[in-house]
Amino acid sequence: MQVGRRLTEDTVWYAVIASWTASLILTVPSFVAIKFDETRKACTGPFDFHTQEYLSYMVIIFTVSGILPFLILFFCYFQIIRGLYFTRTICSETTGSRGSLKSKKAITKLLLSITTSFYVCYFSFGVALLYFKRKPKEEIAEKGEKYETFLKPFLFLLFFHSALNPILYVLQSSNFRQGFKQICCGKRNDVIQVTEASTAIPQKSQLQMRSKAVN
């Protein structure tokens, strides 16, 4: 990627402001007009699930917050993989070494896991919405509650993706995996003993060197 296209500390604020602005534009209309329905004992609004307006609204949100981010992620990840294996501008200091190959494998695995989770969690919700969008308006009004119940697992996946991303990033850390394994297996005492033994060896060597110097 060219240097002029990269985000820096001075330009990253433009991306942050654009993301927050798009989020506000998409969510504020539904938030302002929401109300409590005494009959259904639930919150409803102008984009209620029982109407075609809701499905149109959700399709717009899915397009802006789903398809566009996917295109951006695809472009960025493609540039990373291109720099790893083709132009060799990433991890190029030790090209061909075992450490370099291991780093490239870890990065590629991370990118594939994040992309796969995005596909499964986000696009399944979008496909379900597009399916309901094709239903007649009368059928949506009549079976709205049934369709809403059917949509809940897909809605859960939509929010679960946000919680899954940090876990995927952390699991790629060998230090985290080793520490988590030690906590679960109860090997903390063994680690402390190994650490104490490893620190005692240099101290013993220093004492031997000092005794030789005195002699």
The major pleated sheet works out as: 2 strands, antiparallel
CATH superfamily membership: Rhodopsin 7-helix transmembrane proteins
Based on Cα principal axes, name the global outline: elongated
**Total number of beta strands:** 2
Mean pLDDT: 71
Number of helices: 7
String of helices and strands:
HEEHHHHHH
Strand order of the largest sheet: 1-2
Walk me through what this model shows.
It is a single chain. With 215 residues, this protein is mainly α. The protein has a single domain, classed as Up-down Bundle (Rhopdopsin 7-helix transmembrane proteins), CATH 1.20.1070. 76% of the residues lie in helices and 3% in strands. It has seven helices and two strands; from the N terminus they run H-E-E-H-H-H-H-H-H. A two-stranded antiparallel ribbon has the order 1-2. A hairpin with a 4-residue loop joins strand 1 and strand 2. Helix 2 runs antiparallel to helix 3 and helix 3 packs antiparallel against helix 5. It is elongated, with a radius of gyration of 27 Å.
Throw out a few tags for this protein:
single chain, 215 residues, mainly alpha, Rhopdopsin 7-helix transmembrane proteins, two-stranded antiparallel ribbon, 2 strands, disordered C terminus, G-protein coupled receptor, transducer
How are the SSEs ordered, and which strands pair?
Layout: H1 12-32, E1 35-37, E2 42-44, H2 52-85, H3 98-133, H4 137-142, H5 144-171, H6 174-185, H7 188-214
Antiparallel strand pairs: 1-2
